[in-house]
Amino acid sequence: MLKQLLLKELRTEFRQKFAINGIMLYLISSVFISYLSFKTIVHPATWNALFWIILLFSNVNAISKSFNNESRSGFLYIYSISSPQKILISKLLYNSILSLVISIIGLLSYLLFIGNIIQDISLFMLVLFLGSISLASTLTFTAAIASKTNNNFSLMAILSFPVIIPMLITIIKASKNAIDGLDWSISTNLIITLLALNIIVAALSYILFPYLWKD
Amino acid sequence: MKSNWWKVIAVVFVLYTIIGGLLLEVPRLRILHETIRNLYFHVTMWFGMMIILTVSVIYSIKTLLGGKTENDIVANEAANIGILMGFIGIATGSIWARFTWGTWWVIDTKLNGAAITLLIYLAYVVLRGAMDDREKRARICAVYNIFAYVMLIVFLMILPRMTDSLHPGNGGNPGFGGYDLNSNMRMVFYPAIIGWTLLGVWMMSLRVRLEKLNIALNKE
To answer: In chain B, at which end, N or C, are there fewer CB atoms within 10 A of the end residue's CB?
Structure first.
């Protein structure tokens, strides 16, 4: 059932494509505008911060649309044949995959345009992976909450930013360590914090989603 | 809550806190000197906030389990009062920081956590304003309230203990418990907590009654 739901999400995306195209446009244009203004960035803190800001806003744009295309009849059908937890997990997995795709493409275009100053690429990839999934899980939950109200996008941003800020601080610190080429042992605390925050948010959304979904 | 005895206690304890807190003997510690009196206001305000927000989340859980919107009204007003107390807590902490650390604000885990927690609860207020249907609003806001409370616990209690922090009681700094709460600071500390909490509950109960009257009026 879970696999079917996930495949349905992916298939919808392949058919409509508007979400992924919009995001790619957003991502690539942000990187390009940064390139035009900065030419190249060698200062690690700036490189890092700009990268994660671009990634954050692309993710917010992408995931805010994830709960929108639930038509009334489609929603009733899905609700009747599977449990709300499965729906949430499928959305969570789909958004995580989307977020990972965004981060990979974002990283590649950023490296292409703005230049590569990463010294420890493996730690950076790990932080990228964990960071994207954490952002995706938080944003999925707040998108679910915001989709039940009328003014979708701004409300979702308002709801998600306070929770995302500590996550982002942890992510930015850890990726800065990766860029500077520091030893893994210095960042383990940060990575554990990130993992813990991620698990807490995911577990909360798993428990609370059925109450959101009853309509 | 028809009786009034607890309101009298609230007023008496708050007055005692203010007068006794400023006039009674306090131990002298380095750097802190007389500012340790802020303990009665800053720390007790945070304790009161925790109690009120716990009340809020309990009523949110009750809303989700039972479905009655009266519980949601209480949860909402408790969250509002909790936000107020949080602001006062941060303000008193900032004043304390000005006198002991020399600056109004530092970039520190506990302080960031406190600010972010307040932002989360302010987002709760925004969420509340975004919906009109009472049942749906009760349910969605209850869900977000539970989320906000867990985040409060994480950001205020768990994260600061894990990392370095300038704030007393976290990150390797000793809290105040060992030093002087053995002595006569306890005599003002505990009544202060009770006083602020009861004052908060009084404000909350007034707002709940006001809200219920509003709903009853609008129905006619």
So the answer is: C
